[in-house]
């Protein structure tokens, strides 16, 4: 593993051995719905509360991951997971049943990519051969925790985002596959001074811009070196601010740029600015994007996952929202 200041190059190859995704009904009926492994017909997923529903959804994604790879729990060296519930309760409850060494993680909506980077470092350091990563979010649980219960008819501004009900799981390891994770970059916390939880796209955009600019500078690459540069989840309002910040530094991203929060839903689904949540980037990347790579429609993808590191308490105290953006590069290997 080579560290060029902040960019990590994985010298021991790290491959995507398998992935699994599970989503809620709105996500399943969106433009990417056909690319998910399992779509639950209701938000409760057959359970009695939101947290248990999210746990079941994540377990479903993990089950698809393990079954497709024909692995059992005892073949895993490490489990890295995080979610948006208080103290990552959902992830801890899943780890309780897996009987695998567990690292709990949190970078809000950037958790999935943080997990991948940490897993890659473990594999490169020789401490693990197969690492399972998972991240999830649920609109019912997140609305109750961060805003208001979904039964409460609250008017939201157009810049607000809709929490994705979804879970993504991935097994990273040394076994060669068609998708390799070649580089990673741990983001810095950046605070623009925004304290409005309905302006998360604007709050996170500077962190995403800083991560991309740092990556391009340290690796001496250009945006055109990638088939796709993907953020998650700035949504529509944040994506425009992100592109504006890049233009101010002489960097243009347009045709080969997209955002997970924008891609997740159709324009007729009434989701305001787009999607967000720890399950948004995980399901879009591990589902749709990996499908595109395997189909040879994409060969090199830079994923920049963004997270707003606030809590219900800091919002009530009108504190500003610190944000972060982690990045990884996924590349197609073979013909």
How many distinct beta strands?
14
Count of all domains: 2
Distance between the termini: 26 Å
Give the helix tally.
Answer: 10
Strand count, sense and barrel status of the largest sheet are: 12 strands, mixed
Find the CATH superfamily of the largest domain.
Answer: Stage V sporulation protein AD
The CATH topology of the largest domain is given as: Peroxisomal Thiolase, Chain A, domain 1
CATH class of the largest domain: Alpha Beta
- What percentage of the residues does DSSP assign to strands (E)? 25-35%
Please estimate the helix content: 25-40%
Q: How confident is the prediction overall: mean pLDDT? A: 93
Measured on Cα atoms, how large is the radius of gyration?
Answer: 18 Å
- Report the uncertain regions: none
What CATH architecture label of the largest domain applies?
3-Layer(aba) Sandwich
InterPro entries: SpoVAD (IPR010894), SpoVAD_sf (IPR038369), Thiolase-like (IPR016039)
Protein name: Stage V sporulation protein AD
Pfam families: SpoVAD (PF07451)
Organism: Alkalicoccobacillus plakortidis
Task: Please supply descriptive tags for the structure shown above.
335 residues, alpha/beta, Peroxisomal Thiolase, Chain A, domain 1, 2 domains, twelve-stranded mixed β-sheet, two-stranded parallel ribbon, 10 helices, 14 strands
In brief:
With 335 residues, the chain is an alpha/beta fold.
Notes on the structure:
The protein is α/β, with parallel strands linked by helices and 335 residues long. The chain has 2 domains: 2-173, Stage V sporulation protein AD (Peroxisomal Thiolase, Chain A, domain 1); 179-332, Stage V sporulation protein AD (Peroxisomal Thiolase, Chain A, domain 1), CATH 3.40.47.40. Helix content is 35%, strand content 25%. It contains 10 helices and 14 strands. It has helices at residues 25-28, 50-69, 89-98, 111-124, 139-146, 200-219, 235-248, 260-263, 278-294, 312-316; strands at 2-4, 7-23, 38-39, 78-83, 102-104, 130-137, 162-163, 166-173, 179-185, 228-232, 257-259, 275-276, 300-308, 323-332. The strands form 2 sheets. Strands 1, 2, 3, 4, 5, 6, 8, 9, 10, 11, 13 and 14 form a 12-stranded mixed beta sheet that branches. Helix 2 (50-69) crosses helix 3 (89-98) and helix 6 crosses helix 7 (235-248). The chain is globular. The protein starts with a strand and ends with a strand. The model has no long low-confidence stretch (mean pLDDT 93).
């Amino acid at each position: 593993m080579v560290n060029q200041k902040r960019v990590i190059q994985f010298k021991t190859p790290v491959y995507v051995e398998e992935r699994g995704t599970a989503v809620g009904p709105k996500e399943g009926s969106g433009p990417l719905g056909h690319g998910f492994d399992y779509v639950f017909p209701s938000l409760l997923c057959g359970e009695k509360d939101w947290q248990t529903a999210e746990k079941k959804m994540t377990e479903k994604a993990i089950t698809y991951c393990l079954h497709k790879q024909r692995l059992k729990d005892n073949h895993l060296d490490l489990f890295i997971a995080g979610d948006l519930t208080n103290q990552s309760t959902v992830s801890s409850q899943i780890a309780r049943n897996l009987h695998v060494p567990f690292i709990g993680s949190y970078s809000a909506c950037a958790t999935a990519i943080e997990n991948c980077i940490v897993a890659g470092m473990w594999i490169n350091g020789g401490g693990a051969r197969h690492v399972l990563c998972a991240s999830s979010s649920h609109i019912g649980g997140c609305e109750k925790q961060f805003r208001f219960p979904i039964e409460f008819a609250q008017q939201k501004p157009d810049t607000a985002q809709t929490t994705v009900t979804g879970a993504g799981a991935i097994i990273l390891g040394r076994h060669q596959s068609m998708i390799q994770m070649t580089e990673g970059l741990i983001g810095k916390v950046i605070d623009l001074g925004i304290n409005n939880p309905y302006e998360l796209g604007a709050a996170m955009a500077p962190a995403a811009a800083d991560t991309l600019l740092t990556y391009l500078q340290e690796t001496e690459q250009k945006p055109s070196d990638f088939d796709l540069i993907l953020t998650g989840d700035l949504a529509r309002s944040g994506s425009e601010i992100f592109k504006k910040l890049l233009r101010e530094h002489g960097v243009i991203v347009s045709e080969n740029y997209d955002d997970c929060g924008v891609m997740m839903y159709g324009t007729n689904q009434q989701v305001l600015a787009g999607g967000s949540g720890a399950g948004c980037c995980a399901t879009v990347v591990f589902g749709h994007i990996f499908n595109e790579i395997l189909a040879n429609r994409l060969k090199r993808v830079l994923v920049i996952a963004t997270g707003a590191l606030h809590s219900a308490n800091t919002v009530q105290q009108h504190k500003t929202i610190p944000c972060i953006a982690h990045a990884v590069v996924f590349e197609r290997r073979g013909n």
